[in-house]
Design a protein that fits this description.
There is one protein chain. By secondary structure, the protein is mostly helical. It has one domain. It is built from nine helices and no strands. The longest helix is centred in the first third of the chain and has 32 residues. The radius of gyration is 18 Å and the shape is elongated. It starts with a helix and ends with a helix.
């Protein structure tokens, strides 16, 4: 019974501060657009066209890594957005978006950006088939509908407050 009460209190708190919570999730996921841009114009363009339009070194490389790791709090906070939505009303969209964003864990901890770059540029032995590398890139782009949806939810929530 204590656990149920605690979950109820957490749910009530989340609902009272929904705009803030969804705003944080949207902001953290919007940062991921920087990473997706880098992935597209550096990694993918290098593989397809043999040229890169954005190559970071030194401090800039460190900053893109920091941006990439904001994905961890983004995944957690955005998962709460969709779990909270499911506690209010069942929706296949919430389920689908939970799958989209939580597939990122596979990419983060197994098929890392470094692995993808090494596989696509041929700087390492081909451990896995190339399609797995492209699948890892595809997983990254599953963030886009979630980025759009959480940002939309934030602005809708702001509109309701007014």
């Amino acid at each position: 019974m204590k656990m149920f009460r605690l979950l109820k209190q957490l749910s009530d708190w989340y609902e009272r501060h929904y705009t803030l919570n969804v705003g944080i999730a949207a902001f953290l996921f919007l940062w991921q657009l920087i990473h997706l841009y880098w992935l597209t114009v550096h990694v993918i363009f290098m593989r397809i066209f043999g040229i890169t339009f954005l190559h970071f070194e030194g401090m800039w490389e460190f900053l893109i890594i920091v941006v990439d790791y904001t994905e961890i709090p983004a995944l957690i906070s955005t998962s709460f957005v969709y779990i909270f939505g499911l506690t209010k009303k069942f929706s296949w969209k919430n389920i689908l978006f939970l799958i989209f964003i939580n597939s990122q864990w596979l990419h983060l901890f197994w098929i890392t950006d470094e692995f993808v770059i090494e596989q696509l540029t041929g700087t390492s032995a081909k451990i896995l088939p190339i399609w797995i590398t492209w699948f890892a890139i595809f997983i990254d782009y599953l963030e886009l509908p979630v980025v759009y949806d959480t940002t939309k939810r934030f602005f809708v929530s702001l509109g309701r407050k007014k």
